[in-house]
Amino acid sequence: LDRFGRGTDSLGLLKNLGADYVKLDMYFVNNLAKDAKKQAQLRTLVEGLEALGAATVVGGVEEVKTLPILWSLGVDLIQGFFLQRPYREMSYDFSGMAF
Question: What is the rounded (10 degree) CA torsion for 57, 59, 62, 65?
């Protein structure tokens, strides 16, 4: 489930889909280090998703100071330009794989 927290029916979607991974909207990362209220919101979401059996993914991480906050809040997976910028071409060879 991608961009969780964006829109009005994210909880309804989660209930009906039973997702294993939930990628939270980038809203939760923007200014996270300076916003205690947003950190509390994110902690509540992560704990709730964990109780439902879903791992949390947060994208849009562009600053090193955001990493320890996300880890302390229990986020499972982190994506973003800080960790690795997107590549223009895929560097994987799938030719030997059966699909």
Answer: -30
Q: Which residue from 56, 55, 75 is spatially nearest to 66, judged by alpha carbons?
A: 75
> Rounded to whole angstroms, what are the CA distances from 93 to 24, 90, 96, 98, 99?
30, 8, 8, 12, 13
Contact 13, 1 (CB under 8 A): yes
Whole-angstrom distance, CA of residue 61 vs CA of residue 79: 6
Give the bridge partners for 22, in sequence order: 56
For the full predicted model, state whether its pTM sits above 0.90.
no
Nearest to 20 by CA among 33, 1, 5, 34: 1
Q: Where are the domains of the chain?
A: 10-78
DSSP 27: G
Tens of pLDDT, residues 59-94? 888 888 898 999 999 999 988 887 777 666 656 665
Do 70 and 46 meet the contact criterion of CB atoms below 8 Å apart?
no
